[in-house]
Amino acid sequence: MASEINDPGFIDLNFRIIEPVEKQIEAADEFFEILNSRRTVRDFTDQPVPFELIEKAILTAGTAPSGAHMQPWRFVVVQDPDIKARIKEAAEKEEYESYHGRMPDRWLRRLAPIGTDEHKPFLTIAPYLIVVFRITSVSDLGEPEPTYYSQESVGIAVGMLLAALHNMGLATLTHTPSPMKFLQEILGRPKTEVPYVLIPVGYPSPDAKVPDFERKELEEIMTVI
Fold first, then answer.
1. 187, 131 contact by CB (below 8 A)
2. Is 102 strand, coil or helix?
3. What is the four-CA torsion angle of 182, 184, 186, 190, rounded to 10 degrees?
4. Based on the structure, what is the number of domains in the chain?
5. pLDDT digits (tens, 9 = 90+) for 114-147
6. What count of other Cβ atoms lies within 10 Å of the Cβ of residue 103?
7. Is the pTM of this model over 0.70?
8. Could you say which of 156, 174, 187, 209 would form a disulfide bridge with 64 (CB–CB 3.0 to 4.6 Å)?
9. Is residue 14 part of a domain?
10. Is residue 149 within 8 Å of residue 66, measured between CB atoms?
C-alpha cells in the first residue's frame, strides 16, 4: 500500500461517454472533417485576432498528456511589432544560410513543390507568433532534474494547439528555422527552455494559395495486426 506521503491522491474520472454508437461515429466524422480542412498557411492578413482565442487555444494545448505529468512546455505569445521584426530578421538570416548551403540537395528537392525560400513575411504580418519552448529540466522538488519524455510531450501539445486554433477558424504555420537559439535570446528565455517551434497565427489572406497536395489514404498509414 502506498504511503500517505507518496500517494499523489486520486479523484473519480469525469468521462463523457457518447451514446449510442451512431452518435460516436457522427462525432468522429465531424471532427475529421474539421481537421481535414486544416492547411499550412503562409499568406496572412493583419486582421486583429481576439486575444481570448489565443489564451483558450493555449489552455487547450496545456491539457496534453506529458511524461510524469511534468508539463514541459512554455508558450510565448509575441504581439509586439518590434519583437516580431527582430524575430523575422534573425529567422531570415538563418534560413538564408540553410537554403544556400546548409540543406542538402535532397531536402531542397522536397521543398521545391512547396515554393518556400528564405523570405518569411508572415512573421511580421500575422497578428501573433506563438513560440513553443521545451522545458528540459525543473527544480520544483529541490534538486534540478531532467524532464521525462519532453520531446514527445511537447509534440503532442503542439498538435493539440494546432487543432484548437484551426477549430476556432484561425490559420497557422509550423515554422522551424534552424538553428533556433536566437528565439531564446530575443525572448529572454532561460537555458532550460529550448525553442521547439514557431507558429504564426491569424486569418488567411483572401488570395492565399496552398500546394495541391493529397494526404495519404488510410491503408497507407494504418496497419492492423
1. yes
2. helix
3. -150
4. 1
5. 999 999 999 999 999 999 999 999 998 888 999 9
6. 16
7. yes
8. 156
9. no
10. yes
